[in-house]
């Protein structure tokens, strides 16, 4: 029986950030289909140490595994990129050890499909292997957005966008199937790549509806004085940093008496400085984000740069909280604005929407309840990942025939 090799740019466990949430659920679903081997990077030694817990969570369904702590810094990767003409996204993750492990698995095991999670992992898949490429988002478009912001790094971002898109296009041309997290991302790639023979599909994210359940057991907190607005996310990630700075500086002043909690690990100095405002709280890492989502009067997602689907929005909706999202944060989410959440473009529109919901608790509760129902209707992970059996099973059926 065919086996699967799963490649990931970050160890897919624990599922405590956006990319790990998707990669973990996909890995778990693939393990139900057959033996899966894992090759992934880790951010540091603490991240790599999660491998035993990952094995235990899969209940013995994981074969060989190689988890490598990534040590190449951005400066070194940037120099390599200039010398080789490659995008930094590739040189940052390049590794001879990773390449040798992949070659070993392909030589020694009956691998029917290599499932690569995130574009930079495609560089380790040799020609001839059946590749399912989960791009998740169109990363080259993200770098285009960075370049449009201007500044001294704009030329670097433009170069990265060009070089990375060329690699994304080459990868999709040789992949058996290319996946994106939303129909919008898939359509954007297809329109730009112009590869009529490429099989490009969307594989949507879900949400853990048992965990993100307002009736679940988790630590609750007492609400303080004044309305609480909450943003959740990894706070060393540039789009999140941009979002909270912009919100604190342009939207929050137009919402009297409201407090703004920025909830997420690794806040950079620019985020920590926001906490000098009496109305802004920067929490850093918290034991359970549900505690803060549950305490929020409103959850805000004011991202100006975003790709794919925002798990933070899905999680807040699953928790039955009213969400106010920017158009970028709403893209790819299958819900009805005005019923399941509010979508507001720009500082004035967001401030107005927040003030209106804060003054109408009945409408806020109605939107929160509708959000939870929408997640229950369409966002179970089992439903979202059901196509994996066909995506991976193609090679298994051909082999059996």
From TrEMBL:
Superkingdom assignment: Bacteria
Gene3D superfamilies documented for this protein: Glycogen Phosphorylase B (3.40.50.2000)
GO MF annotations, alphabetized: glycosyltransferase activity
Entry keyword annotation includes Nucleotide-binding: no
Keywords: Transferase
Coiled coil: none
A Pfam match: Glyco_trans_1_4
Name this protein carries in UniProt: Glycosyl transferase family 1
The organism of origin for this protein: Allosphingosinicella deserti
Record lineage: Bacteria, Pseudomonadati, Pseudomonadota, Alphaproteobacteria, Sphingomonadales
């Amino acid at each position: 029986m065919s086996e699967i090799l799963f490649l990931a740019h970050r160890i897919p466990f624990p599922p405590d950030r956006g990319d790990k949430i998707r990669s973990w659920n996909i890995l778990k679903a693939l393990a139900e289909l057959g033996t899966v081997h894992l090759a992934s990077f880790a951010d540091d030694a603490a991240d790599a140490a999660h491998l035993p817990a990952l094995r235990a969570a899969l209940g013995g369904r994981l074969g060989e595994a190689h988890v490598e702590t990534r040590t190449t810094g951005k400066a070194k990767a940037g120099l390599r990129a200039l010398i080789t003409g490659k995008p930094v996204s590739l040189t940052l993750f390049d590794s001879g050890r990773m390449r040798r492990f992949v070659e070993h698995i392909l030589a020694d095991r009956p691998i029917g499909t290599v499932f690569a999670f995130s574009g930079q992992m495609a560089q380790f898949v040799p020609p001839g292997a059946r590749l399912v490429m989960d791009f998740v988002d169109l990363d080259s478009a993200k770098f285009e957005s960075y370049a449009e912001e201007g500044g001294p790094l704009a030329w670097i971002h433009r170069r990265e966008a060009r070089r990375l898109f060329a690699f994304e296009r080459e990868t999709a041309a040789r992949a058996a199937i290319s996946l994106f997290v939303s129909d919008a991302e898939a359509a954007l790639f297809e329109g730009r790549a112009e590869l009529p023979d490429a099989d490009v599909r969307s594989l949507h994210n879900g949400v853990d509806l048992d965990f993100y359940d307002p009736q679940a057991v988790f630590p609750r907190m007492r609400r303080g004085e004044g309305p609480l607005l909450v943003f959740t996310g990894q706070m060393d990630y540039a789009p999140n940093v941009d979002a909270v700075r912009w919100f604190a500086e342009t939207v929050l002043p137009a919402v009297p008496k409201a407090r703004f909690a920025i909830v997420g690990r690794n806040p950079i100095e620019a985020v920590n400085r926001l906490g000098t405002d009496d109305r802004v709280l920067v929490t850093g890492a918290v034991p359970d984000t549900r505690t803060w989502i549950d305490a929020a009067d409103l959850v805000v997602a004011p991202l100006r740069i975003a790709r794919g689907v925002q798990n933070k929005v899905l999680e807040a909706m699953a928790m039955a909280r009213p969400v106010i999202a920017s158009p970028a944060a709403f893209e790819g989410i299958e819900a009805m604005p005005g019923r399941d959440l509010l979508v507001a473009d720009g500082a004035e529109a967001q401030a107005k929407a927040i003030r209106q919901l804060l003054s109408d608790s009945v409408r806020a509760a109605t939107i929160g309840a509708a959000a939870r129902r929408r997640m229950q209707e369409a966002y179970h992970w089992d439903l979202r990942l059901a196509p994996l059996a066909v995506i991976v099973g193609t090679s298994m059926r051909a082999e059996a025939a």
